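Quick question: what would this complex look like in 3D?
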Amino acid sequence: EIVLTQSPDTLCLSPGERATLSCRASQSVSNNYLSWYQQKPGQAPRLLIYGASSRATGIPDRFSGSGSGTDFALTIRRLEPEDFAVYYCHQYGSSSWTFGQGTKVEIK
Amino acid sequence: QVQLQGSGPGLVKPSETLSLTCSVSGGSISSYYWSWIRQPPGKGLEWIGYIYYDGSTNYNPSLKSRVTISLDTSKKQFSLILNSVTAADTAVYYCATGLVWFGEFRGFDPWGQGTLVTVSS
């Protein structure tokens, strides 16, 4: 099973700042099959990125995904008030799919 | 545009069977992974498994012995059965789906609203 480790656990930033979230895999993720989700309290997660770098439909271009192999990142170019949430990475490159433990982006 | 609506009991007794259903509207059953994901209160997401429209399944190895996911194409529903539940199975259970486009999964989108299932006597 591929273990995904996200860092940091919590990121304290101000609106307008840039956020960079990391997701590291215990082994290489085949075909860079990695996605990112945003979850707000009481809501289902929302797909942001799939295939490591492809934005899902309707996602603003301030969200971008990058990386390959074992190291991936989600960047939020300029944080808007609605971006403060928990973010999860997910790999689907192996037969056993797994999620990272999440990174909380909170207002400084 | 596919929409999902999950349903099922919110309380299950220990050692009994959890059974949830997800109804699909607004789209085709074909070319999608029909999936279940759960989230214990205050914790992260755990993938349970999926069924493809051709009936093939893939389960989380840690749950495989207790899980069955099925698909009823005529009713446009898919279901989750989890046997021999314990308090550790208390969670919000989400149904979710994702398009498979030329062999590539495009991520879980959309999701159902989530059903809180509590395991307690």
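Answer marked as accepted. The CA atoms of residues 99 and 106 of chain B lie 6 Å apart.
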